[in-house]
Amino acid sequence: MTLILIICLLVLSIILVGVKPSEVTYMTSYCPNTTSDYTEGSKFQFNLNRLLYRLMYNNASHSVYANPSVGEIDDDKVHGLYLCRGDVAPKDCQKCIDIASERIQRECPLKKQAIIWYDQCLVRYSDIPNFASTYNVPSYYWIVYNTESFSWMNQVKGISDAMFDNLTPKATNDLKYAESFDEITPLSLSQKLYGMVQCIPDLSAEDCRACLEGARSVIPKSIPRECRVVHESCHLSYQFKNPD
């Protein structure tokens, strides 16, 4: 069964546009209840710390995505993954990974599987290999949106739908990332619409498309001015802005 968790905020701009590039904003985390725990001082914990604080942190200085593994024996092996938002600078990606790697162990203590989302990145680890490509059906979503309504929202739904129709195929390419920033003029009221979609690079084009379509399906029908949907394998956002 698909689980949907909705978080509503009065001002999303605190998250999307009010955050300086050097800052990172925590969103949420997920700790599966079905996994076994590791023990303090175990080889698994040693490998996890090495994964989070060395391999993933170092990779983030030059790449928005990596999925390293650490360990020789299956029971002690840890598989990791991080993904920074496609428009985040390398230094900010590295900072986000550093902060997320520390907090994920506080949010999910002694768990062998965990995932944490920040506005700028996600970090995930597991004792199961190839976990990045095992979630073909979107299952966990967190939506953050501005509840402020605007008079012409029903008339711009088609515009936002068209934007995602255009961006989704572009996100299935090798980069698994696409964005747009277009001016719109519904009812002679000039606005700009920013949109962004991104998938984990390991996903196939088909799975990327399925993940993004699932994310779109839970966007509120009221068409809030700003919305962010994050999933373990993809995320999307849009924002209506007044012209500068």
Automatic annotation (TrEMBL):
InterPro entries assigned to the protein according to its UniProt record, in alphabetical order: GNK2 (IPR002902), GNK2_sf (IPR038408)
UniProt keyword list: Repeat, Signal
Signal peptide: 1-21
Chain ranges of the Gnk2-homologous domain: 25-130, 138-243
Organism superkingdom: Eukaryota
Transmembrane segments: none
PANTHER family: CYSTEINE-RICH REPEAT SECRETORY PROTEIN, CYSTEINE-RICH REPEAT SECRETORY PROTEIN 38-LIKE
Full protein name: Gnk2-homologous domain-containing protein
PROSITE patterns assigned: GNK2
